[in-house]
Amino acid sequence: MTMRRLFFFPATVFLVLAAIVPPPARADILLQPGLRLAPAEAGSAPQLALTLDACDGGTDQRIIDTLLAENIPATIFATARWLKRNPDTVKLLLAHGNLFEIENHGARHRPAVDRPIRIYGLKAAGSPEGVRAEVDGGEQAVAAATGRPPRWFRGAAALYTAESLKQIASLHQQVAGYSIAADGGASFSAARTEREMLTARNGDVLLAHVNHPEKTAGAGVVKGLLALKARGYRFVRLDQVQTEELPPKQRMLAAPAAPVAAKMPDSVTTPTTPAAALTPERTGKTPLEQSAEGTNRPPSAPPPPAHTRLRKPPAP
Ligand SMILES: [Zn+2]
Question: Ligand 1 centroid vs 222 CA: distance in angstroms?
């Protein structure tokens, strides 16, 4: 090999590799808003808000029965779909309007994210028009079912973009974050859910699910509620108290990169980047440590099952 060839060989290899190896995927930054209760008056009992998402599916009667028996108020975030499929529960909730407030969880349980991606296996609304359809459709369904337009909105997966948050505010819905995701999207065991519930402190907004009667997490919600009540906590609905928004946490979801423009010599096809996996969020947590709808507490147990994790976005 001549000196000239020796000089050009590494450069050629570099050029070929640069054309073959895809560039890093562009990261979509999603936002997870937080919410707490404003401090209660001095001397009053410590208070918590229980928010229950009713995404789709059925009713966890264990939780509803406990709330009724123990006189514990809750804010239910219901989708249009769930309202339609659970008419008897809706009647029951409305018959106990002193305990239950029904708010907007969207029309079809599509994350209110204006980009065509998948989050925890859910197809996002995908565009500003899609976000609007999700918010408006849920609002109309709640208003029709309850006779009162909802004030709060929590999108599926409780993740948004900066743009979709602005859009939701322009639709006169207040985004409901939370401070503790107690049941990991209903994927946690009863014992872990109870443990997560018991991390609650004065002012926390708890998130759990009321649409998974088939899962064990609901039993943990019940045990946690009873224990928190026994510890002297008072439960309030979001429409009964002042709240404080916490700065949103950033979650990064790698999106497909744009096709590489460079042309390979000898007509070698340039690959496009396949769908990429979730990258660690800026807090340094690994994807496996991130629970389905997040938590403000450090993770202390194994990750939720695959169906609740952020999944690969669809091929472009
Ligand atoms: Zn949901």
Answer: 19
